[in-house]
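Sat 14:20. Reprocessing the chain from the morning session after the first attempt stalled halfway. Input below, unchanged.
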Amino acid sequence: MLGPTEAAEASGARRLFDAAPMALCQLEGPDLVLRAANEAARTALGLEAVELGRPTAELLGSRFDPQALAALGAVVGANVERRFLQRTMDPDAPELGGVYDFLARPDVDGSGEVRGVLLFGRPMSVPSMEPEPEPGQPAAPPLPPDRALQSALLPGHTPIVPHLQVCAHVTVSPAGGAGGDWFETVALPDDRCALVVGDVVGRGYPALSALAQLRAVAGNELAEGVPVTEVVDHLDGCARRVTGGRGSTVAIVVVDPATGGYEVAQRGHVAPVVVTPDGHARQLEVSPSPPLGVPGSTARHTGSLRDGDVMVLFTDGLVARTDATIESGLARLCRGAAHAVASRPDLPLAELNRRLADSVSLGLGRPEDDATVLSARFTEREPPALDVTTASAPDDLPAVRTQVAAWLEDVSSPEDQAFALVHAVAEAVARAGTAAHGPAELRVRGRLGVDGIARVTVSSGRPVMESPERARPDSWVSGLVMMLELVDDVSVDEDGRSVTLSKALGCPTVFVADEGGGDDGILLLDAFLVREGAHRVLMVRGPVDLSTVEDLRLAVVAAARPGEPLRLDLTGVNSLRSAGVTLLHTLLARGQVVLRAAHGSPASTVMRITALPFESVPAG
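Finished this time. Tokens:
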């Protein structure tokens, strides 16, 4: 009969086994009798607890295909591991079916004899931009293929690092397929953090291809410590080679979390906005610069963030609308940011991003292009550390869980990531007592690294954990496998006196699919030639974007005369986007045109931002 301590340990082990997120089963003997199955396994296979003790072929014959059952038999007969994918299905409850990735390992006793199979399974899932439907609400329709690819090409999380909270929000426009917005956050070798936002010309698969290549270049080079201005130069070269890359824009902000100092490098992008805790918002004074793939230099800017300041990077889809200047969009963005932060300085960044997107849309109308917001809050407060001394006795486990959970809440870990790490640490503490053959004094220490990884070490003065190479299968299934399922990495030192669990913490990226109607009308470009004294002037009206840029090019070709630059009046252009900016830079480089626009017109704002020289004429 078990004593109180042994009974408590057994009860705790059963609870951990049943709470494991992966499906765990123990099959015994040549007939593979099901001896144990946790809740995840019973749910996946449609089993009831009372069905334990029956051969697997009887229980799963209608749910597993013959090849899967044969693989289980081979594990016992040949003493080998087998891995297979299997669609499980309960005939009486089809909603419980799904595709699972199963690993079957021999269950070996102390003499080396195979006594059965240990079966582990995890559901296969596909990332989605759509949130889970509310209970009782119909599921959202599947994403179009290009939108699904877009979500897969963007980071699903932004890292949580000391002194710097980062969060991303993407509003997907209903118009014309997947857009070219992208973002990245990178931990640099010198402990700084890079925030990147870019925008590729066009939509659909060509834009997604360019997006993927530019993001890969930026992320890899920043992670290797390449200076930020050189990274932008390399992105410029990449944009010249990649189909659809010319005319793309990018802004990179590198922040030192230890001091708040930052440097900005950008090409053709709208400058970031900084919001102070007392509700003042200002756009950074970054010099104009041309887009990527167009001759010109990179704009640079340096400054410092103070405690509580929020840096907001965004794509022009947030603030640009037809028949509205970018200045009006920026003004609404700054007012919305100032009001939101002043009303609540500790407002979660996910909520701040949502309010910014909503406040701009309320004033300017729905986004006509995808809109991305990447915000980062700097704090001088030192990140808390975890340092707990406890025993490995079962009675101490609840207190350990509580203290680890409180620490993770203090470092702003999302609930699902905190849940996994808390239970992994509890399992490590419980395993330590088993390995030490009785309660042992343990020290549990945790810290959040500059790479966004939370590391928790459980240690003692005597061996507390077997290494994965030396662990027995029964020990592995009840301990290490559970921890490996819950965290990203488990490392045990050589003498077994400490085990370290590592898990990356990140703020989930928020994707919002704007299903609004938008304007389905066709917007045409109007270009006509007039004489002003000795000069020939091409007056342009309407939008200059991806859909009309070829019309403008042909109009310039038709109106041009050798040796006489054509004056291009853009006062009547109500929307000048990246494709138009690229064409204008090309025409200027060839000496074909001279640009002009009225002061305060939508085109004049964009030309200043993208370093297009033009003659400014009075409005009206």
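The longest strand covers residues 93-108.
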